[in-house]
Design goal:
Elements lengths: L1 H9 L1 H8 L3 H27 L1 H14 L10 H50 L6 H26 L2 H28 L11 H4 L8 H34 L2 H16 L6 H10 L5 H49 L6 H57 L1 H26 L6 H24 L7 H31 L4
Helix pairs in contact: 3-4, 3-5, 3-6, 3-11, 4-5, 4-9, 5-6, 5-7, 6-12, 7-9, 10-11, 14-15, 14-16, 15-16
Length: 493
């Protein structure tokens, strides 16, 4: 601790430049929480008492006076424009209110975190006026101020800020438009007639949009009440726009530098311009970098603290193990040979692996032998079936059945030819019946010849004979139909 304090005193400039930002950033950050609170209240007031009630009034006027005639020029266009701007500003102010409240909540959470850190550091410090504790206090304060400035800058650069600012400029223009319509056409008597009879008597000066005229007059009163607040919000937005311009910032700083030359060159005016007008400006990048470095330093400190605790625990574990070994030695308790146990376990594991490999090899050999024996048995069975089929085909019964089937086929064909030669137009039907009978006789003979065989596999011979008989019958029927067609075409003389 003494060395750390000495390092801080002998290297004060580097320590301050590393831990503390510039004076302008500190002053701007000190003002940021107040400005955030004022902006939040301003957006809430403008939402509830400005655009929102005017939006509701414009909706009422548009719905009630829809389709009516009015001699006041552009009063309906004004009501549409005023209602649209009221909608945009209502949404914009509401979103800005939520964004600022979120930023303030984040700032409060950061403040509580830093307070807890300072309390923890104060609890570990034993001396009053501890230099590291004072440094932590100033660092925490600077971090909080920079965080507030960054939150304010994020609010200032948001989309909703630009939306409300641009809409406020147009709002002021519609306010002047409203005053011109009300003062120019409704205040002076005799310019506009509102009586219902004037619609027929003087339609060129008649106005039936009574609600729209009432809303226009009421908006004039509301504009007078909140014109100053609206003007402040608009000027603030325009100032933020100009602050982002480098040329605008340089011109202000040059003017401030000239003012500081009259005070011995002390940059008081420049600091105030940076803090309260430019609101950080170019120093925002350095503030973000400072916060990042501070977060990194805090995380590294936590890691070092955690590592120190781990080292302490390891030291305690080592001491306990040494004490345990000494007590066991004094009590005569032998410690197990862990190396021998590990070696035996490895040998058992190798033996189990070897036995598993042997069993796998034996199973693979048995599978190969079984596959070879099965292949041989299948080959022998196929040879037996082939021999049996060859013997059946070479047998006399098979040859006799085939011969009888062929003879029956020939006889059937011969009889069919004879019947076809004797066929004419009158006996066509009888010839067809005779051909069918002959075919059936041929099939019966083929079946009887196949039935004389004693081997079940001779069914192929019977199928061949039956197929031959069917073919002969088909040929016979085709020939008979051809002859019949010829007989019908050329009858006998």
């Amino acid at each position: 601790a003494e060395m750390e304090e000495a390092a801080i005193f002998f290297d004060w400039n580097n320590q301050v430049s590393k831990d503390l930002p510039s004076v302008s950033v500190l002053l701007a950050g000190a003002l940021s929480p107040t400005l955030l609170s004022i902006r939040q209240a301003l957006h809430l007031v403008l939402l509830l008492l400005g655009p929102l009630p005017i939006l509701l009034l414009c909706i009422w006027a548009i719905a009630y006076d829809w389709g009516k005639k009015c001699a006041i020029p552009s009063i309906f266009v004004w009501s549409y424009t005023q209602g649209a701007l009221g909608l945009l500003l209502s949404v914009g102010h509401f979103m800005m209110f939520l964004k600022i409240r979120s930023g303030r909540n984040k700032l409060s959470a950061k403040s509580e975190e830093l307070n807890e850190k300072l309390k923890a550091n104060k609890g570990t410090s034993n001396e009053d006026g501890d230099t590291p504790g004072m440094r932590e206090f100033f660092v925490a304060g600077s971090v909080l101020l920079q965080q507030a400035l960054l939150i304010e800058d994020s609010v200032r650069r948001s989309f909703w800020t630009n939306l409300t600012g641009a809409s406020s400029v147009l709002w002021i223009a519609t306010m002047l438009w409203d005053y011109a319509l009300v003062i120019g056409w409704t205040f002076w008597p005799g310019i506009i007639a509102f009586h219902p009879k004037a619609e027929k008597l003087a339609p060129e000066v008649y106005c039936g949009a009574h609600v729209t005229v009432f809303v226009a007059r009421f908006c004039c009163v509301l504009h007078l009440l909140f014109f100053l607040v609206t003007l402040i919000a608009t000027v603030s937005w325009l100032s933020d726009i100009f602050v982002k311009s480098p040329s605008y910032g340089r011109s202000l700083l040059q003017a401030a530098e000239k003012a500081d030359e009259a005070m011995l060159g002390v940059p008081v005016t420049q600091t105030l311009i940076k803090a309260f007008v430019l609101r950080g400006g170019a120093d925002m990048a350095s503030a973000q970098l400072s916060l990042s470095l501070q977060d990194k330093s805090e995380i590294e400190r936590q890691r070092a603290e955690a590592q120190r605790q781990v080292d302490d625990l390891n030291t305690q574990i080592s001491a306990c193990m040494a004490e345990e070994a000494a007590l066991k030695k004094s009590a005569g308790i032998s410690q197990p040979d862990l190396d021998g146990v590990d070696a035996a376990a490895e040998e058992d594991l190798d033996e189990v692996k070897r036995q598993g490999e042997d069993a796998m090899a034996a199973m693979q050999g048995q599978a190969a032998a079984l596959e070879q024996a099965t292949a041989k048995e299948l080959e022998v069975m196929m040879q037996k079936i082939t021999t049996l089929l060859n013997a059946v085909q070479d047998s006399d019964a098979y040859k006799s059945a085939v011969s009888q089937a062929q003879a029956a086929t020939d006889a059937t064909a011969q009889k069919a030819s004879e019947a076809a030669s004797q066929l004419n137009a009158e006996n066509l039907q009888s010839a067809l019946a005779q051909a069918q009978e002959v075919a059936e006789v041929g099939m019966k003979r083929a079946t009887d010849a196949a039935g004389q065989l004693n081997v079940e596999n001779l069914q192929d011979a019977m199928a061949q004979a039956a197929e031959a008989s069917r073919s002969a019958a088909g040929q016979l029927q085709t020939s008979a139909e051809s002859i019949g067609n010829t007989a019908h075409a050329s009858p006998p003389n």
